[in-house]
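*Target chain*
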Amino acid sequence: MNAKVPSYWKRVHLSSDKLADWVRKVIKNVKFFCDWIEGGQPKVFWLPAFWNPIGLITAIKIRYSRIKVCPIENMQFDVKFSKSEGIGIEGLYLENAEWDTTKEVLTETRHKVNHSFPIVSFVE
C-alpha cells in the first residue's frame, strides 16, 4: 500500500491524493451531516461537505424567497464576514491573497500558501 487514495475512491468522493487527508475529510463530512441531523439546521454550513455547493446557495435563496414571498430572481443578499447574523458558509480558501480581519479587505500575501477565508454570511 502506498498511502494514496485509490483512483475509484477519488471518483466517488473528494480529490485528495493522500489517503490520510482523504479519510479526515470524509470523517469531517459525516460529522457535519450527523450534527445537522441530530441538532437541526446549522447557522454556518461547511461548504466543502456538499457535492454541489451552488445547490446550497440556491437552497438558501429559495428558503428566503419563500419566507419573504418574493420571486427567487429578485432575491438579493448583503454579504458580511461574521457568523453573527444570517446564514453563513465556511470552508473557503484564498490563493495568493490574505484576508485582513481588521480592515475586512483582501491583501497581497507574503507567503505562497492557501489562507482560510472568514465565514461569509448571507443577510437579507
